[in-house]
Write a structure and sequence with these properties.
By secondary structure, this protein is α+β, with helices and mostly antiparallel strands. 29% of the residues lie in helices and 32% in strands. The chain contains four helices and eight strands; from the N terminus they run ααββββαββββα. The protein has a six-stranded antiparallel β-sheet, sandwiched between helices. Strands 5-8 form a two-stranded antiparallel sheet. The longest helix has 20 residues. The relative contact order is 0.17.
């Protein structure tokens, strides 16, 4: 009896330690509705102005970036898994009035591409990590005049979170942002 209790206790401890050691999670999010944050809605409205798709699907990461100085520049970036399970990126950039210059609003870039195999594998690993969905925002770098402010919504079967930052985002969420925004 005592041996069985010791074995049970040891087995339970091993299971607890294994559970704590791994930071990946199984699917647990069922809310795939589009983000409702004002900044992200602004990115959707930008896409609507030019009749561009919003890619509101089950697994997607939405980033809206705004920089204001001489002009107002807004970038809507969406990375999503298509029906074949491949990661795609769409980035739309608009400039317009709102800064020091009174200029006409116009679309200056609209690009869609596939993520590289390395980017896709990294992103798949990152979105499965529990700490991605509940970690503190950690950023670095000086915020210069006209530097962009970002908001990112991560919507996956593994979780859902929204992160706001300026400068350079660090940690797991920073790694996601670097892939989504195309930074090395």
């Amino acid at each position: 009896m005592i041996t069985a209790m010791k074995t049970f206790a040891a087995s339970t401890l091993v299971l607890v330690l294994v559970g704590c050691a791994t930071s990946t999670i199984s699917p647990m999010n069922s809310d795939f509705s589009p983000p409702a944050d004002a900044e992200l809605v602004s990115g959707f409205e930008l896409r609507d102005r030019y009749s561009l798709p919003k890619y509101i699907v089950g697994t997607a990461i939405y980033v809206d970036s705004v920089a204001v100085h001489h002009d107002y520049t807004e970038t809507s970036t969406i990375v999503w898994k298509d029906t074949a399970g491949e990661w795609q990126r769409s980035q739309v950039v608009e400039v317009g009035p709102g800064g020091l210059l009174d200029i006409e609003r116009k679309l200056v870039s609209n690009e869609t591409s596939s993520l590289t195999k390395v980017q896709a594998e990294s992103l798949d690993r990152l979105i499965r990590r529990a700490d991605l969905y509940n970690s503190e925002v950690n950023r670095t770098g000086e915020i210069g005049i006209g530097a962009p402010r970002h908001i990112m919504a991560i919507v996956t079967p593994f979780g859902r979170t929204t992160i706001e930052w300026d400068g350079r985002l660090r940690g797991k969420s920073g790694a996601v942002a670097d892939i989504v925004l195309g930074h090395d």
